[in-house]
């Protein structure tokens, strides 16, 4: 039975019309003021309670998840929060889950369409591990804007300072308490959250990636410096880790997930999954499309590196890469430097 949040009964609440690759079914897309809800002057609450939350517990939970996922989880303390990926043997992204540890329980928060396949994958991998994998009835709520300590009866809290330029705190509460918690904040719809997600460069797997996507194509996913995202670059072996290590040490991904500025005068809005061309040649795939309150229509897109500075076309809609979305730090590529030194010979070190 399809999920429908109680907040859909609030005045002005409207769902995203029609089918979409964005995970949006069952929660308000906006409350009647889609652009005004993006202008955050105080903390606002976004209902994301349609998402799936799995609870993994037991004596072996930390080691079990650490062996399967891209984040280092075997030695984290209570209160730890990050994200993680499940990759296939070639390093392609299968699942993307936010992770929070509370009371020795590892909560995995992921898109609703991955509830069953990801839970099934985890259960098939249990073997002799002493773990329990349960589907919880927790609802995720995201608070955008500057937020201090919260005491709302939440099962877990995840903070992302500076996310999208506004900051974000995710909490999970029993779905029966969502209406009560919603009364503590002004409300904004999932459209506002999506606009800030595009600004942050955070992909949603079904909308923004494809069956060939690897982690380094979305720089937001890679741990860098103090930023703990989804891929730990110095942990032990897990499925797909060879691809991560090879790209990190020897080269760069052939594509990048970037933000696009779209021509707002186009008669129709391009759809997620549309082909992106440059000079008549296919160079990418369009992802999430949303209207930004200040910038107009924007999008995330996977684009070949060779076309990042080219004029782009999406079915007659002109587009260009927003330079601010290009990664500043893509690692030191130590392996590539070593190969170059070998090719140049001993005199290169003189």
Automatic annotation (TrEMBL):
Lineage: superkingdom? Bacteria
SUPFAM superfamilies in the cross-refs: Folate-binding domain
Q: Where is the CAF17 C-terminal domain?
A: 257-321
- Pfam families, per this entry? Beta-barrel_CAF17_C
Where are stretches of biased composition, namely Basic and acidic residues?
A: 330-350
Give the region (Disordered) as residue ranges.
319-350
Q: Which GO terms describe its biological process?
A: iron-sulfur cluster assembly
Q: Which InterPro entries match?
A: CAF17_C, TrmE/GcvT-like, YgfZ/GCV_T_CS, YgfZ/GcvT
What keywords tag this UniProt record?
Transit peptide
**PANTHER family reported for this sequence:** TRANSFERASE CAF17, MITOCHONDRIAL-RELATED
Q: What is this protein called?
A: Folate-binding protein YgfZ
Q: Which organism is it from?
A: Corynebacterium wankanglinii
